[in-house]
Amino acid sequence: MLDQINEKKARLDALRPLPKYTLKSLREKLLLEWTYNSNAIEGNTLTINETKVVLEGITVGGKTMREHLEVINHRDAISYVEEIVQIKEPLSEWQIKNLHRLVLKGIDDEYAGVYRDQQVFISGAKHIPPAPLLIRERMDQLMGWYNTEGIKLHPVVRGAMLHAIFVGIHPFIDGNGRTSRLLLNLELMKDGYPPVVIKVENRLSYYEALDKAHTTKDYDDFIQLVVAEVNDSLDLYLSAMN
């Protein structure tokens, strides 16, 4: 599966630089789909068209302020990811906290960018995140893994594992899922891959693969799920160039 991705990525790289307006419309399409699906996975009830309208600065009647903020915040967090990619800044805990701060801005300012001080549980999952006292240590271990073993992995595998390990730690009270998907795409985009969209219709297999990774340390199912989404994004970019 990675061979197929490498081949498609090489084809895409050979076509670069992509035409300016093609690139702009692909970015807008993926920004909308990424924002809609990432929020929908977490229970946001805005449809994809309503999400588009909110991104354009229009309020949707009958929807909560939180749902509107989740869209605006996610857009701002994507802009931050793009900025990190552009300036080639290496991953740090500070960056992760900044990303999370953007995700929860105006929704829960007290806990935006702040590690949780309470125990949390993931509904429907066997895995129980570590106690608050262990979060700093686990995050240190994650960054240690990232800078040693992680850096040697294929970018798709590294991004998938970063997402899975981070969300298993569940370092924040809320917004861990959105932040983990931003981190996944940050890793992919750094290596010149288009962002991927974890689709809300795949939510069940996504959660099951994550729970398996957390309880058995077997990441294969989750990596395969990410690989399939990377394939889709590469296909989209390549089809735009035909």
Describe the structure.
The longest helix has 23 residues, at 65-87. This protein is an all-alpha fold and 242 residues long. The chain has a single domain (2-237), classed as Fido-like domain (Fic-like fold, Orthogonal Bundle). The chain contains ten helices and no strands.
Descriptive labels:
mainly alpha; Fic-like fold; 65% helix; 242 residues
Brief sketch in words of this structure:
With 242 residues, the chain is mainly alpha-helical. It contains ten helices and no strands.
Q: Judging from the principal axes of the Cα atoms, what is the shape?
A: globular
| Mean pLDDT, all residues | 97
Tell me the Rg in angstroms.
17 Å
| Proportion of strand residues | under 5%
Structural class: mainly alpha
| Gap from first CA to last CA | 23 Å
Number of helices: 10
Query: In CATH terms, what is the architecture?
Result: Orthogonal Bundle
How many structural units, i.e. domains? 1
Q: Give the C-level CATH assignment.
A: Mainly Alpha
Helix-strand topology string: HHHHHHHHHH
Unreliable segments (pLDDT under 50, ≥5 consecutive)? none
Q: Main sheet?
A: none
Could you please say which CATH topology applies here? Answer: Fic-like fold
Number of strands: 0
Helix content: 55-70%
In CATH, the homologous superfamily goes by the name: Fido-like domain
